[in-house]
Specification:
- It contains two helices and two strands.
- It is of the alpha+beta class and about 60 residues long.
- The protein has one domain.
- It starts with a helix and ends with a helix.
- This is RAB28.
- InterPro entries: P-loop_NTPase (IPR027417).
Length: about 60
């Protein structure tokens, strides 16, 4: 969660906040050639890894 927040929001919080379920973050970047790209980053809480909902969270992800 801390790394995803740092990447997506360009800030690093001093307090840890556990991800409950699933969080989404967007990060807009410009690639060489002035190509604008929006990245959608998913942060899945550690307690859900291997759980019943994991397949539903990541179905169709690339």
């Amino acid at each position: 969660t801390s790394l995803v927040t740092c990447f997506a929001q360009e800030t690093f919080g001093k307090q840890y906040k556990q991800t409950m379920g699933l969080d989404f973050f967007l990060r807009r970047i410009t690639l060489p050639g002035s190509l604008n790209v929006t990245l959608q980053v998913w942060d899945i809480g550690g307690q859900t890894i291997g759980g019943k909902m994991l397949d539903k969270y990541i179905y169709g992800a690339q």
